[in-house]
Write a structure and sequence with these properties.
- The chain is of the alpha+beta class.
- The protein has 3 helices and 4 strands; from the N terminus they run E-E-H-H-E-E-H.
- Strands 1, 2, 3 and 4 form a 4-stranded antiparallel sheet that branches.
- It is globular, with a radius of gyration of 16 Å.
Length: 84
């Protein structure tokens, strides 16, 4: 069986709070995760800020989301996870 995931990929500029170093990163979030965050009053930006803050980074900039629908073969995914 195949499942389609609707993904949003954001380019993010972050700074490490310990090192002070700045770098570019990407974060991919499913449309379902974004909708769940919205139901509790959280925007996509707030979700991204929270994610990076927990890992010790400060978000300096968030780019526009790239949208893509990705098909996932669930049986193949299961077999790979099971080491078959």
């Amino acid at each position: 069986m195949e499942m389609t995931l609707y993904l949003r990929r954001f380019a993010v500029t972050i700074r490490g709070e310990r090192t002070g170093g700045t770098r570019e990163d990407h974060i991919t979030i499913s449309k379902g995760q974004l909708q769940a965050a919205q139901t509790v009053g959280q925007s996509s930006k707030e979700l991204i800020y929270r994610h990076y803050n927990r890992k010790g980074f400060k978000v300096l900039d968030i780019g526009k989301a790239e949208k893509k629908a990705v098909g996932v073969d669930l049986d193949k995914l299961y077999r790979e996870a099971a080491g078959e």
